[in-house]
Write a structure and sequence with these properties.
About 35% of the residues lie in helices and about 20% in strands. β6 and β7 form a beta hairpin. The longest helix has 14 residues. The structure holds pyridoxal-5'-phosphate. Pyridoxal-5'-phosphate binds next to α1.
């Protein structure tokens, strides 16, 4: 179920909130990726824990193990597929499962990329996609978020709107124009337009 948002930082923000990230928490992410990832972690009130990159920009699994060992209270990570290079998704998912870490998958550069035959977006608990103008499928601006968890999905859909109808946990992002852009891009991706 997709939640449509302005651009990637709000998607990551919503995903972190849905996964229960609170002020003072730590969130692990790639040390080599777009600056908006650590910035958004900070805007969510948490601290980024940065993992070193391999020479091809992917996440270094050995350094990930070291960072988790040094930060055992870390319960969420963002795995970013920077420049279309997919990290060792199986190893990273196994490590996350072993330590009870939930994963947001940043597919801004990963749309259409595969890992062992699986499309990027399937390894994370929540996957975020950008439709900004220099991405593979674009709508000028916008993006969407996908998850198989119905509760997280409905929270993110609600928060990406006006948050007017129920007791809000945060002010709604209300990105309606960009939602329409994102929907156009999503339908193009699915071959509906
Ligand atoms: C890896 C990565 N993630 C996320 C983003 C942000 O996407 P958006 O432009 O939709 O904010 C970018 C931007 O280029 C990016 O490079």
């Amino acid at each position: 179920m997709p939640a449509l948002t302005l651009s990637l930082p709000p998607q990551i923000y919503l995903a972190l909130l849905a996964l229960g990230v609170k002020h003072g928490d730590k969130v692990i992410t790639n040390g080599f990726t777009f600056t908006a990832l650590p910035s958004t972690i900070i805007h969510a009130g948490a601290s980024p824990v940065l993992v070193q990159a391999n020479e091809n920009f992917t996440m270094n699994v050995e350094d990930l193990k070291l960072k988790i060992a040094a930060n055992p209270d870390c319960k969420v990570m963002i795995l970013s597929h920077f420049r279309g290079k997919l990290s060792d998704c199986d190893a990273i998912r196994d490590i996350c499962d072993e330590h009870g870490i939930l994963m947001v998958e940043d597919c801004a550069h990963g749309m259409g990329c595969t890992w062992n035959g699986e499309q990027a977006g399937k390894v994370g608990d929540i996957a975020v996609f950008s439709c900004q103008s220099d991405k593979v499928v674009n709508a000028g601006e916008g993006g969407f978020l996908a998850t198989n968890n119905a509760e997280w999905a409905s929270q993110c859909v609600y928060w990406s709107g006006a948050c007017a109808s129920r007791q809000p946990r945060l002010p709604g992002l209300y990105s309606t124009i960009f939602q329409r852009n994102s929907l156009t891009a999503l339908m193009r991706r699915r071959g509906a337009l």
